[in-house]
Amino acid sequence: MNGFLSVFKRELKGYFFTPIAYVFLVIFLNFAGIMTFKDGFFEAGQASLYIFFINMPLLFIFLAPAIAMRLWAEERKSDSIELLFTLPLTSVQAVLGKFFAAWTVVLLALILTFPMVITVYQLGNPDLGPIISGYLGSFLLAGAFLAIGSFFSSITKNQVIAFVLSIVGCGTLLFIASPSVMFRLANYFPKSLVYIAEWFSLQSRFESLLRGVIEVRDIAFFLILIAGWLWANIMVIKERKAA
Amino acid sequence: MNKTMRLIIAIFCVAIITICTTLIINKKFGRTGMDLTEHGIYTLSDGTKNIIKKITQPITLKLYYSRESAMKGSEGIQYYNNYYLYVKDLLDEYKSIGNGKIKLQIIDPKPYSDEEDEAIQFGVKRFQISENDSFFFGLVAETQLGKSKTIEFFSQGRQQFVEYDISKLINRIISRDKKKVGVLSSVEIMAPEVSPYMAQMMQMQGKAMPKNWLAIQQLKEKYELKNIKVNDYKAINDKLDYLLVIQPKKLPETTLFAIDQFVMKGGRLIVFTDPYCLSDRPKPNPQNPYAAMSYDNSSNLNSLLEKWGVKMKDKMVAVDPTLAISPPGNPEPVLPFMQLTNNEVNKKEIITSTLQKIRVIFAGSLETVKQDGVKIIPLLTTSENGGTWQYKNPWELQRPDSRKIYQEMINGGKDTMLAALITGDLSSNYPNGIDFEKTEGEISAGKKKEAKPKKIHLKAIAKTSGDAMVIVVSDVDMISDMFAYQQTFFGMMAQAGDNVNFLFNALDFMSGSTDLISIRSRGNIGREFTAVKKIEQEADKATASEAEAINNKIKNYRQKLNNLGSYSSKNNEQLIEDKAMLERKKIEEEIRKANKAKRNLQAGKREKVENLKNYYSNINQFFASAIVLMIAILLSIYKMAKARKYNARRTR
After folding, report:
1. Per-residue H/E/C for B90-131
2. Which member of B18, B36, B75 has the closest CB to residue A228?
3. Is B77 on the interface with A (CB under 8 A)?
4. I need a labelling partner for B149 at 20 to 30 A (CA). Which of B301, B427, B522, B626 fits?
5. Which pTM does this prediction carry?
6. Could you give the percent of chain A with pLDDT greater than 70?
């Protein structure tokens, strides 16, 4: 636990002692506001944050890999990874510490969107349920993207490659259920397999949460996905450590 | 095996484990979870559970969805993929509550397959999306005895009513086939039953055979109709499922009492009244040809409805300059002839949510009368520009003068209600019952004795026990052949607009038990920006007197313009042409100015709303990011100061 905490703290400090976290927060908050109002939040005249949340996948697909790309690639490039492995901590602690630090930055970003909640409460009488589940969905979605980003960051020294691979990975899981993707998949794979792929669409899981219903399978899906990618990440790190 | 290979295999195993766990959890937990919405709109309602409890024999639900075709379809079909998953989940829940009495089959009807034929046979709608592919998305409920009912297509607009639609389907398949509708009308809407012999006789005498209204003819296909004479109060009884009262003119008190008690006992009532019913014409009377002039063709049921929360205003018709249409053969729009569109039908109610175009003619204006425990839901209204027009004499309606009506119309400043749904706890108009005398002739020993009046007391139920349901419509003509149908190219009569659909939807809706209605009342709760509405209302209030002054000014100028027109037509135009032209130009200029002032008032209101939008837009874009930036700057200044201090100490 101590190992996890020290990595977590070191990583979090790393974000805030460099401009990374600030740039991320400013861009995220700015774009979240702009996109919501540009997509007709005010014109729709409905006291709901649906339009605000529906833009989250698009924002996170770029911003989450941007935070995650440095997690391991930077350590590998500057060879500080060797130093990290000399410390008395396990690969699990190192991976989890880094991941949770990045997730905390995202959490902070989501908390800082509080003016949106105040706005919607001042303009009308919203249903709190979908707002809570929307925030939970956004947090879990960002977690899944960060886990994917963290994995790709661990397999390459180059941050740009890690960034691009993460976007491709996140995009695949986000758009897998769209008809055009499914149609292409159906050309190469058996249909039953394609239908299974539908269950792994981040978009539909996320939208299901936006309705205001927290279903066990949706939450479990995000948590399993995060755990799976982090597990793979741990394996890669273990392998590098042994090398 | 080298290390990289081992790593790849390990990651592959992780992926497999992740996928399997997800699938297992999906299967195990289904839709288990927490519905955080305020009204629990995503949880199956008690109404649905009660309906499922009533199932005695197993039923099969067949969900037809063309998954394979949808994959080849456009991006727009993605919507249906998600919608399909939602419907499927919902049906899974029906199945799990059904305790084995509900079987669920998911069918993907492939082109030219037996399943496709079966789907078409059941009446599921087919959409051709390419040369070889068709798209189906419907539901069939089937009993073991082969009885089936179908939802032909899950359309986009009805997603919020899916639970209602599915429960209604199940309710229909487990309940009696044809519901009984009593039709009580002062106009001849239903032809009396004529024996074949009588029909032949009439034909020989050259008399026209009485015919049902087309709407009634269409209703007969779905319901068992019973024609009730206006004085036959005994026929209004528990055997009827609904009562349709059309043009109720001077009904006897016993009939009014029977209608009242029908509602108190939980019967569903639909009333069509009219301040001026074009379909209600006197029978030609050669001895008194002027009888038609004094014929009263208005009707209302205020004597019952007022206590239930709705009253039709006397001698008033609803008018709306923005909805006015021209009657056939008349180039000018006539104000009381209106075509209601999307905005004038209540989109939140199941009866009217799908209706697009409804024509009403001399419709009355309904007014709510506050009664405890009664809920009045407007179904059809005029637009905000609508109002009412009080006529003094029915003759004025025979040749309606739009200009005059426009000048005399009372603008309510809000929409005028044309049809309403009454629900809640209703009280009887006759809580103590009624006493009346009945004269009956007695027949004894083959001789008819003198008729003796007999005093009769009928007991009453004072209050409804469950949720009552009454629909009131202020126009009869809207369902008449003249306005609800039009002749097609092939000489057939086809529905014009949604007039008859309104009646069908109303009956359909009422066929739902209270369980079904409870499903309806849950969903679709609009959450408007109340703050924006308040600003608009305040702005309207602040400028109301100014707006009224401008409107009066415009009205006066228009009046002057009209007078000028009539003056010039009566006199020698050549002589006064110049003067009149000058005057006209001056007035037109004044009208332009007044209209501009009116637009400025509107712009002021818009500006306030726009300012509010900009305020919130800026706050949400810049407030939090400005705080973050400030913290970043302060921190960097602090760090720089610290570094300077450190460097200074080092150089010292």
Report:
1. HHHHHHHHCCCCEEEEEECCCCCCHHHHHHHHHCCCCEECCC
2. B18
3. yes
4. B522
5. 0.63
6. 98
